[in-house]
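Onboarding guide, step 5: your first structure request.
Type a short instruction followed by the sequence, for example:

Predict the 3D structure of this protein.
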Amino acid sequence: MRLLIIGCGAIGQTLAKEIDTMDEVDLFYITDKNEERAQQAVKSYRKAKFITNTDESIRAHLKHLDLVVEAASQEAVSHYVPFILGFGKDVLVMSVGAFANDELREKCFSLAKKKGGRLYVPSGAVCGTDGLHSASADKIDTVELVSTKGPKSFKDNPYLKSIGIDVDTLKEKTTIYEGSAREAIVHFPKNVNVSATISMLGLGLDKTKVKLICDPFSDCNSHRLVVKGVFGEIVAETENVPFPSNPATSYLAALSAIGAIKRIAGNVWIGI
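The system replies with structure tokens like these:
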């Protein structure tokens, strides 16, 4: 198996470290808009090679690839994912908040169906997506996600500044947003990728409810997913350790991608 990782930040390098140990992978490539960082990163792995961050370079390597992993940004999803799917290649998307853009989402879904490439979205930093997926086979009444994070996760957020909230001055747990998943992704693009995932699995971006809480005493990123429908009720709670270098991102998000890649590379899927 051969892969390309787009992005070598906290998540990208965590993926690279694990992929380098996988028997199923004989070679993988790394690229990043910061090419110097990517060139340095490949030196840490036995199976890694650097390629330049251009459409021409990626196109030239696609025919040799089994999977492309986006671990960069929503902007990278907008640019690269339709491009890759257009060649019928499989792609795994980490910055799933990009799919809050209806036009982009439908374009990617259509290309996957038309060209035969598979579009993978891992569960990310939230648990309970398996149950939500199953529940969606019948009527779902409500889906709500409550996410609680520390001030570092929301620091310098333009939306919070515009409504006069300074997370560094909060003295107690404070709800800083409550509304639809669609608007949550617009206002907090670095914090609520999981809301896009559960929206696509369940009721959609406009009917999925999101509450964001800033807790000045919290040292973890927690998510509480509540789903109600004809099946009954799901309550799934997750407390995540954040990446030290990127507190807006949970370590479990990277682990979910690693788990997904291992399932894609293997022949046995448990809990599908």
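Each response can be followed by summary notes, for example: The mean pLDDT is 95.
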